[in-house]
Amino acid sequence: MIHNQSDYGYPTGALSMLCVACGSTQLHCCDGHGRRLPFSAWAAAVDAEICRIEDTKQNEITAPYAEMYGRGLSVMAAVDEALA
């Protein structure tokens, strides 16, 4: 399981820097090797971000997550869409 930005290729604590694996500026951008996150890791990251934003322990937001993943949305774009 991927737990922090350094696992995604970011130098620890450097959220404004580019990912060294894929060049993205987003959290949860890739698997740390420049490849797209598998659905399970992507969904877990979406859930974690929603919980962080909503300050809850469990994500109660229902949204078409599989469809969002299929459309190629990033974790943060999916979070934004789910919370809209």
CA distance, first residue to last residue? 27 Å
Order of helices and strands: HHH
Work out the number of β strands. 0
- Average pLDDT across residues? 82
Structural account:
The chain has 84 residues and is mainly α. The chain has one domain (5-83). Helices cover 37% and strands 0% of the residues. The chain has three helices and no strands. The longest helix is centred in the middle third of the chain and has 16 residues, at 39-54. The termini are far apart. The mean pLDDT is 82.
Topology record:
Layout: H1 39-54, H2 65-70, H3 75-83
Helix pairs in contact: 1-3
Summed up, what is this model?
This protein has 84 residues and is mainly α. 37% of the residues lie in helices and 0% in strands. The longest helix is centred in the middle third of the chain and has 16 residues.
What characteristics describe this protein?
single chain, mainly alpha, 3 helices, 0% strand
